[in-house]
Amino acid sequence: MAHSQVPQGPTPLPGVANIVAIGSGKGGVGKTTLAVNTAVALAKLGFRVGLIDADIYGPNVPLMLGTSQQPRVLPNNQIEPNLAHGVKVISVGFISPGDKPMVMRGPMLHQIIRQFLQQVEWGELDFLIVDLPPGTGDVVISLVQTVPLTGAVVVSTPSDVSLQDARKALEMFHQVKVEVLGIVENMSHFTCPHCHQEIDIFSKGGAERTAKQFALPFLGSIELDPDIRQGGDTGLPIALAGPDSAKAAQFYAVARQIAERAQAQSAKTENIFEIS
Predict the structure, then answer these.
(1) Residue 54 contacts by C-beta under 8 Å, 6 or more apart in sequence?
(2) pTM
(3) pLDDT band, very low/low/confident/very high, at 45 (cuts 50, 70, 90)
């Protein structure tokens, strides 16, 4: 059989130590908010960080990071990622900006994901964060076929509807043999700015219970807070305030956990290869 017909398995990206996907079973739970603030927090903690916006149909990363210029194509046909708040970033929103929708079929999607991974000049990175689209479809399959993932983080609100879809995401990662590093509860609760009482909008603690049920680490919870939303809408993520800011601290706590678990998972995988 000719070599060209041999299907190529996932190939590590030279210089990239950990690739972490952030996903959920459904939209609207704040995956991009978590991905962007985690990336900024890791960069502020001194790590070298890249971020792939793999939500091809609804790319929100450019807005949330406040960067929209078209990336430069380098002489070797590689793409230079944009730099925003210390994070190297690529998004289809840089190539097709504004309100123009991307209308495409599965094979084209696969091509774009491969390009974002292999044709972008990522250089040396400690973490490459991948913000996944909602659901359990094409993009995840393209991703795991192209590169070995260190692990995945599942985001959910505490509501039963969201958790039902989060469980589908957990099952999907299990099926494609990607280690789940843990679960994050977003929009956990709301603190009234006037009476400072905690208001339980979505049934706080649901994601933590799900993590326990699946024997997975619970990586922390993020409050429902207008300042987080405003940071995303203005391209100035709240994590820029630094680890000592009361509102940003929750993202730093989650980012540290993700970093720790990803590095432990990478070390474990390396040991397996050395033993075999």
Answers:
(1) 21, 113, 116, 130, 131, 132, 133, 139, 143
(2) 0.88
(3) very high
Q: Transcribe 13-73 into DSSP letters.
A: PTTEEEEEEEE-SSSSS-HHHHHHHHHHHHHHTT--EEEEE--SSS--HHHHHT--PPPPB
58 within 8 A of 199, measured Cβ to Cβ: no
State pLDDT tens for residues 57-93.
888 999 999 999 999 999 888 999 999 999 999 999 8
Judge whether 62 and 70 are in contact, CB under 8 Å.
no
Residue identified by tokens 């094979």 is 107
What spatial distance separates the first Cα and last Cα of the chain, rounded to whole Å?
A: 27
Asked whether the CA dihedral 213, 214, 220, 221 is positive or negative, the reply is negative
Structure tokens at 83: 């730099």
Within 10 A of 234 (CB to CB), how many other CB atoms are there? 11
Whole-number Å distance between alpha carbons of 276 and 272:
6
Chain centre to alpha carbon of residue 264: 18
Among 22, 21, 29, which residue's Cα sits nearest to residue 162? 29
Half-sphere exposure of 227 (CA within 13 A, CB side): 14
Model confidence pLDDT, tens digit, residues 119-151: 999 999 999 999 998 765 678 888 888 998 999
